[in-house]
């Protein structure tokens, strides 16, 4: 019969395994921290000192990098794209499958009616926003996508909170987004969008003038 120590070892192994499939480095570090702490405890309890000491070292490494992550200041900016679309097309092609798992992607994005923005994080193109004019005061977000390694909501807060004035300065008072999958809808809610029916279609809406 498996005793509680063996169950602890199995659980620690499972948690470490889960950490390896995390696309977010921060999540990977946190889950790895929990798993390695459990493994260290398991190692000491069964008197396997190499296992205990090695995983204690991994705990300390994870703590060090987590502290660095939380201390690090990120710099964000928006880069508006003009007629040069070669890198945009490459970006969309590279992440096409992942983007379409969250939301429906329209064709003919090269059409000039679409406004395209790269969200830069420490000068790295970490996200893309594609939008079009819905009416004089409303901008419809067609694509709002962040690459997996940077999905910690900082990009969304930068775009929809810190950069409100960017949209307002162009005369927009409202942002609209069609709902994608459940994760996309939860993201929109976190960013302050509310569900609303407009002309018989279901959207998420954000009032830019709302404090």
Could you describe the 3D structure shown?
This protein has 211 residues and is an alpha+beta fold. The protein folds into two domains: 4-71; 76-207, Aminopeptidase (3-Layer(aba) Sandwich). It has helices at residues 4-19, 25-45, 49-71, 86-100, 154-162, 164-168, 182-190, and strands spanning 76-80, 114-121, 124-135, 138-146, 174-177, 194-198, 201-207. A hairpin with a 2-residue loop joins strand 6 and strand 7. Helix 1 (4-19) packs antiparallel against helix 2 (25-45) and helix 2 (25-45) runs antiparallel to helix 3 (49-71). The model has no long low-confidence stretch (mean pLDDT 89).
CATH class of the largest domain: Alpha Beta
Low-confidence stretches: none
- How is the main sheet built? 7 strands, mixed
CATH architecture of the largest domain: 3-Layer(aba) Sandwich
Shape: elongated
**Which range best describes the helical content: under 10%, 10-25%, 25-40%, 40-55%, 55-70% or over 70%?**
40-55%
Rg, nearest Å: 22 Å
Structural class: alpha+beta
Spatial ordering of strands, largest sheet:
1-2-3-4-5-7-6
Overall strand count: 7
Q: pLDDT average, as an integer? A: 89
The number of helical runs is 7
CATH topology of the largest domain: the name is Aminopeptidase
The CATH homologous superfamily of the largest domain is called: Gcn5-related N-acetyltransferase (GNAT)
CA distance, first residue to last residue:
60 Å
């Amino acid at each position: 019969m498996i005793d509680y120590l063996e169950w602890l070892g199995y659980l620690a192994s499972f948690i470490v395994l889960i950490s390896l499939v995390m696309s977010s480095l921060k999540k990977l570090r946190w889950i790895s921290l929990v798993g390695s702490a459990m493994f260290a405890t398991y190692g000491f309890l069964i008197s396997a000192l190499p296992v205990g000491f090695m995983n204690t070292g991994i705990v300390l490494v994870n703590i060090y990098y987590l502290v660095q992550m939380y201390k690090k200041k990120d710099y964000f900016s928006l880069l508006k794209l003009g007629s040069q679309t070669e890198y945009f097309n490459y970006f969309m092609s590279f992440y096409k499958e992942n983007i379409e798992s969250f939301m429906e992607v329209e064709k003919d994005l090269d059409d000039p009616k679409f406004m395209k923005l790269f969200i830069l994080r420490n000068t790295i193109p970490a996200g893309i926003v594609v939008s079009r004019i819905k009416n004089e005061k409303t901008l419809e977000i067609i694509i709002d996508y962040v690459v997996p390694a940077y999905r910690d909501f900082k990009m969304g807060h930068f775009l929809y909170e810190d950069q409100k004035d960017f949209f307002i300065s162009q005369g927009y008072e409202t942002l609209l987004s069609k709902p994608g999958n459940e994760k996309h809808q939860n993201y929109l809610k976190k960013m302050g969008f509310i569900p609303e029916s407009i002309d018989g279609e279901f959207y998420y809406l954000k009032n830019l003038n709302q404090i």
